[in-house]
Every structure is written in structure tokens, then in C-alpha cells.
Amino acid sequence: MTARPAVFPRDFKVLDRPSIVRGRGMYLEDDTGRRYLDANSSAGVVGIGHGRTEIAEAILEAGDSLTFVYGGAFNHPWQEKLARAILSVAPPSMAAVYFVSGGSEANETAIKLARQYHVERGKPQKSKLIARWQSYHGVTLATLSLSGRTSWRQIFSPYLTPVTHIAPPYPYRCAYCAAQGGCTLACADELERAILLEGPDTVAAFFAETIVGTTATGLTPHADYYARVREICDRYDVLFVADEVLCGYGRTGKPFAIQHWNVSPDIITMGKAIGSGYAPLGAAVIADKIVEAYAAGSGRFVHGFTYSGMPVSCFTGLKVFEIMQREKLFERPAEMGERLMSEVKALADKHDCIGEVRGRGLLIGVEFVADRMTRAPFPKEAAFTAKVAAGMRRRGVIVSPGVPLANFGRDGDHLQISPPFIIAEAEIALIIDALDGALTDATALSL
Ligand SMILES: Cc1ncc(COP(=O)(O)O)c(C=O)c1O
Known about the structure:
14 helices, globular, alpha/beta
């Protein structure tokens, strides 16, 4: 019998994961020498690609002069430089950045920033949060409370705090607009209803992934959705927090996904691509009006992680930013994403199981259905997406199976394709070949 690993497994049924020993560009390599095309950027993280020697050298240099200083007592130059760099590409109302070590911490920080903002302005009764179903904002108890990912919420429900959830903008399965012949923005108006029902004086903030990630990859709201959200939030003095941990920092072809809607949120949360896997880094990007309220109020945000603004992480973030700008990686996903998307869509002619292909830039979701006419999903037990992802892995391409989403989170399948921003034509072809073959196999297995 093989000994149990010393590391607590994420899944006791899958102990034989490949051991990855090397990453270069778009590829990972395991300890047997097998190469994989990383078509999901390792959970949407590695935007600039793996194994950049330039970054490794920069980390060496930074670490040689300073590895850590406690941000509660000291400044260091890299944090300010990185904050200025991020603000230079952010919507104009953004005025400051709070650094953390990842996406959950960024959203946890945003919850507290929003709450204290209202307290600073003499509105301590404003505490409630509104978010959407089929969303993911993190694993900490507060961010899981925000998340509308039913499968991850259930076990921990005794500890979750009350958050009101509204419908996501999901045209393919929209309960509001199915009979209307097009989007009516009813899902945005549901926000107003929720605020009114809760009591506008009690609501602090609305959280939404600008473009949805793992829980329903690629859901992209109507062109007027966020303007309507902004209008509703302003009407009731509710902060709008855009979670861009996955969809932000270039992934959709703009530095921030919300820039496609030309709307300014009050807080934008960041993670993943900002450190690109070279350092644990996340951030809350904060609007001027919040910064001013704190400055004019108590002057002190009651918050702070030991590793907030860690020098090596900020230094690494700066190098990632430099590469993103130099190689135009904030823009490149727009063009490459269009090519990849059109080739995935073309596969629908051959594979009836493709119900919808959606997304923006290099954040592409493929929803599978058992019946394209009725849009009936595969039953969960069919594990269709798992079969597709496994088939692609056998062909040397890594993608990410999404969580069930139809029938109130019981059944349904979707796949997330979210490759690094450096992807080239040749790799698009490899992804399409692998997907094509894996769909043929998975369909045969499901007949
Ligand atoms: C949209 C979104 N928000 C928040 C998170 C949580 O980020 P982290 O896993 O870095 O804590 C994720 C992670 O996948 C995410 O996709």
C-alpha cells in the first residue's frame, strides 16, 4: 500500500496528480518529461506565461536587498510604484490601491472597506451585502458568503453570513427574458428590487464578477447592464464592487474588464494575473470618494494582513506590469481571444453537445447540453465536462472544468478555456484539435 502523502490532499480520490517540475511559456512539464499546454493559465493566473527568467532574476535582486518589512510600521518604494502603475491603467475615478496576497483577501478587504466607508460617513446602519448566484468571490467565510456557488457553500452554511443573492445575467438560460425575444435588463433591475426589499438605508454594497469566471465561465452582461447597475447603486448610496480577480488585468483585452462598459465601480478587486504566479499578490483598487471619506473621517482603516504589500510581491508585480506593457499583453487577449472563440464556435457545427460559446478575450466558456433544441443539460452523474477535460489532458492540453450551473446548480456542464496572454496561432490549433477529439470521445461515452 502506498503511504498517504504528508500534504493534506485537496482530493483523497485523486492522489496521483502529475508532479510538475518545470514551466516555460505556454507549457508545463511533469517529472516524467511529459509536456502539457496550459490552456487555463493554471487557474487563470499565469498571464505572462511560465518561467520568465527576467522575473526570476528580478526577484533575486529584490530579495537580496529586502525580503520583508511590516507594512503596519514602514513603507517601501515598490508598493507605491506598483500602486501608481495600476492606477495609470485603471478607470479615472480610482485613487488608491490596497495590496493583499490573493483574490479572497481582496474581496474580504472590499467588504470591510465598504462597511467602514458608510460608518465614516455617519451611516452605521448600512451593512448588508448583495451579490449574484453563480458567482465566486473566494473561500474565506465572508467571501464564500458572497459567492453564489451552491456546491461550495452547503457544508459551511452554518458559518455563512446573510448575503442577498440576485440572478446573474445569463441570457442562455434567463428566466426573465426567455419569452421576451431579447434582454430587458430585468436581472439588473432585480438589484433595485433587492435593495428596496432589504431597505435602502441598510445596504452597503453590491458585488459582481464583471465577467463571470469558474461558476459559469464567460457570462457577459448586456452592453447596458453595468450602466444600469451604476445608476441603481448611486440612487441608493450603495457601493458597486467589481470582482476582477479572474477577468481583470488584461484577460479580456483591456486592463480592467469593466472598461468594456465604460463604467466606474467604487472598488475593483484583483488577484491572479497581477502577480502572474510569480508571487502571491492581490489588490483592492479604490475610488476617490472612498479614499476621501476615510481621510476626512477617522483616518484609519481597521484592517491589515501581515503580508499586505510585501516587498518581494510588489516588486514582482512591477516586473509583471512592465512586461504586460512592453509586450502589449493588456490588449493582446482581445485579438487572440476572438480567433480562439471563432474556432471554438466553429466546432459547434460538428458537435451538437455545444450549447453556447461565450466570453470576452481569453476568458471563454463552453456550455454543453444533452439537447441543443431544448437546452436540457446533461445530468450531473454523466460528468460530461470531466470527460471532456480528461480527454483534452490525454491529448496534452489542460483546461478547467466548470462547476454545474443549470437547474439551480444541480446539473449542467461548462468548460473554461483561459490560456496565457502570450498564446500564438499554433497553440490555438492545438487547443481546438484536443477539444475536437475530446468531444468526440465524451459524446461516444455518453450515448
Ligand atoms: C472571480 C474570483 N474572485 C475571487 C477568487 C478567489 O481568489 P483566490 O483563490 O486567490 O483567493 C477567485 C478564484 O478563483 C475568482 O475567480
